Amino acid sequence: MALRAVEFHILLALAVEECHGYAILQEVSRITDGELDLEPGTLYRALHRMLKDGWVAECGRRSVPTASARAARPEPPGSNEERRRYYKLTALGRRVATAEADRLSKLVSIARRHQLVSHA
Amino acid sequence: MRDRRRTRPDREARRAKADRRFAWWLVWLYPPPFRRDVGLGLVDTLDDRMRARRSGGASTIGTRIPAVADTVRNASAEWTAYVGSAFRRTVDSHPDSPAAPGGRTIMDTLSQDIRYALRLWRRRPGFALVAILTLALGVGANTAMFSIVNAVLLRPLPYPNADRLVAIWGRTSAFPRGLLSYREYAEIRRQTASLDAIGLWLPQSINLTGGTEPQRLVGNFVTGSFFDVLGLKAERGRLFTNEESAPGTAKPVAVISHQLWRQRFNQDERAIGAPLTINGTPLTIVGVMAPPFDADSVPSGGYFVGGVDVFLPAAEFPVPRGLAAAGPTLLAVGRLKSGVAVETGLAELDTIGRRLLAADPNAQAGRTLTSEPAHESIVGTSRPALLLLFAAVAVVLLIACVNVSHLLLARAIDRQKELALRAALGASRAAVTRQLIVEAALLSVTAGVAGFLLGRWALAALIWLQPPSSVPIPTNVPLDGLVLLFTGAVTLLVAGGAGLMPALRTSRLDLGRVLQAGFRRASGTGRRTRDVFMVVEMALSVALVAVSVLLIQSLLAIQQVPIGFDSSSVFTLQFRLPQSKYPKPDNIARFFRSAIERVRAVPGVESAALVRAVPFSGNGGTVGYAVEGRPAPDPAALPQSRVHFVTPDYFRTMRTPLLKGRDFTDRDDLSTPLVTVINETFARREWPGEDPIGKRITTPQTTGPVTVIGVVGDTKHYTATEPAMPQLYVAHYQVPLIFSSLVARTAVPPLSVTNEIRKAIWSVDKDQPVWSIVALDTLVERSRGQSRFLALLLGAFAGVALLLAAVGIYGVTSYGVAQRTREIGIRLALGAPGERVLREVVGRGVMLTVIAAAIGLAGALAMGRLTKAVLFGVTPTDPAALASAALVLTAVSIAATYLPARRAARVDPVVALTEE
Q1: What pLDDT shows up at residue B87?
Q2: Which of A47, B455, B723, B789 has the most Cβ atoms closer than 10 angstroms to its Cβ?
Q3: Which of B565, B743, B760, B589 is nearest to B666 (CA)?
Q4: Rounded to an integer, what distance in angstroms lies between the CA atom of residue B244 and that of residue B660?
Q5: Chains A, B: CB contacts under 8 A, how many?
């Protein structure tokens, strides 16, 4: 069962810890060294699919740890602007990610045997 | 005054808020399920992304464009998937769980609603039939009418760059839209900077000889530039050039139409180069004109080329001294340069006209040059009539919608029992409302399709009615995207109009309460709603009836206007003598005298005479004159009079009364002094209270004075509705003309002697074609064509509207009575007399009728400007028309309310009280 690349990256990002939307984007960018710069629409389409399939679940809304720039703006009490929805991997999702990672690593060892992988 | 105390953080805060709002709007573009599941998260992330970009230094555009691009890309992909899955049963894609049986898609729900509606209709086919037919009638009439309005008023002329075509007129005080002289055309062509091209043209009957019988064709005398202006091309051979058509350099060439090529030459290539003898002149065919469009689907056959058989060089136009020296002779059409406004062209023409006047004040006296968009000059006069008809069908549609709306509403209320049950079984209010809307939509779509077909059929019927030429409906009304769009839009509106109210009303019903109340008709349609329905329908009907009564009155007025002569049993025909054959006035006079003699000898002919232009044939002329013995008027502003050229016995043939003096005799010819007979209006204008016999006048066209020898009664010449005009009759033989018409009073039906009369003329000259053989009565009737057409149609529409309104009123009143059965039963049981109930119901109806009549009549008056354009002898505020419309409406409404009222009075109290 082959995953789309976008989905696998999202699963990877969520494997570390629960994230909110923008954090996932940032994590994916970091993992791929800036090569995969997802747009929010693309991300959420994938998230929507994975939510329906049960690989990913929402886990409530939490306040984002405040960055220094945001502290400058006074927030009216009770505003939900700085609270984000967090997503986490489900058990099923973790299994899917693991399966895919195994598959890929098998492929990589075959490639290494045939000297296709440059040792970076 | 900018508040300088605003800080950067405040600006940032505002921008951030704007960004977030922007993100909200973007997320709205996604499909509903997507929005439900992850919409809010997406808003957050979009907002975060934009904020990050801003703090990176990007501008508003720089932050928002990527977001928009992202949304467009992904939202469209989501929508595609969403719509796709709506047509498939969705299956829970979890690999471990079985296919979810409860999975529903939109199509499932829709088809269920539709099947339900169809089941209901099968049980009550009457309702469905009435509703669909009523709506189909309205939609059909509107589609037909719109097709016509589209074909005539909205579509541009079928020539390339039609929006730049202008008709150029030579304007005088007598003729706002007059012909141009060749000199004026040449000057305009030389001086213009705003016209791409200008051409002259004039259709006229021509004689084709050389066959077994002389044949009359329609020729169009044109300059080579005419083909340029209209973008006409040759199908075979070539079209002739400006040089070949100009006086002085003209060649004997001709271009034939595709039609003629087919009929006469069987589309043989050898037609090119073949000879053609027109008006006695031998010409050579150099080309066949490619038909630029389907003439049947264009108003007036395309106007410029409609019905034309042969295109001839303008120089061939039969004028005594040749085209170059002649006065205003031909029509002109031009094409403005791209980007030049009509007003600019107008101003330039005015200037050129002034220059011409300065250069040649005698010839150009009183003339200015003007232009108008070609489309306007063709269809402008028919606009009021068409718009009036369109308004009428719109009214019919409105009434139909009101009827059906009430029908649906009543039925929805009736179905409370069933609806309440569904609610009890778990259907949400939304589901119930949705079903009602789907039913209304199904009704409308069916009615829309039926109406569309009905409309096309009605169009055919309308064409069959032969609309007058003043309402130029093409025989083959084209069906284009605009008409389909219109029908679709109307159907949608109808669905909304008819279905919305019932759906809204019903959704507000507390179905639970209805259930508890034991299925009694707890809430009805409400008195106010019923009253509104009735008033709206009646007001619309009365407006329509009032307008049609006005039109009928107008038609009657036109029928009764005296035309000054007896048009019954008069045979007419026209002919034009070829100039080459009859070069001298002597020959012409001899031909005509012999022809009349032979015609008089035909059995059945009581009297015969010649006249240059038969009344009501559309031909005619005017002349300027001056009265002898009075100070000479300004030659640029001579008083104008109609002029007719007649032989002796004309007045007797036409039975125009000779009031004073004498008729022409055979002795009034070229060798005797010029004489004239004038009409009453002329006498009254120039010699009021005196005896005009013996008085003399002069005209620019005659040498020497003309003596008045007689006075005849006023006659109409173009239409029955024209005002009285001064008319001069001149002795035919004193002014030799090659074009003339025969009028003969017959003791038998006029057209039955056609062959004999033709043979009589051919016995004088076997090559002389004759045409326009028609009874005078027919010509006169034709002139009333537009009023008759309008009165007929509008009367029909008013009739339909009244019928629909009557049915509607009946329905509403019946329903209201049924609603109040219980209350009526109680009253009757308590001793109220039956008549009282009857009177009350009818009385209420009458009161509403009065209100409706007031509103409706006010509406009819508001349309006054439109109706005034098509009325004659009647003002839009005519009290008789308004009163009769109100009366008709009252009668109809009383009739429609009487039956249900009688039923109410006869209600059996026992039944009423125990009814559940």
Answers
A1: 65
A2: A47
A3: B589
A4: 53
A5: 70
